[in-house]
What does this fold into?
Amino acid sequence: MKIPRSEQETIVIYDVEVGKWHIDTTYPPHIRKYTAAMGEIEEKTKDRLAGWISDEYSGSFMTRKRKTLTDAERQRVREQLRKGQKQ
It folds into this structure.
């Protein structure tokens, strides 16, 4: 059953107790976009996607994986910040 364009929507809710984002969408581009970011999928059909964003993704609402820095990269960032503070 195709959902009329006027009724397609995306609802994004942050649950403080769980510490995760919940997505419920019937908008096809968002279904395709957020499928890869889902950890726990409650419902996935051609017309609907509902579930929780995976812990692999940032605490803010993003669909990019959180970047993990190596010790050398962390040190380089610290040095850049110190230079900026001295100016």
Summary: The chain has a mean pLDDT of 86. The chain has two helices and four strands. The longest helix spans residues 71-86.
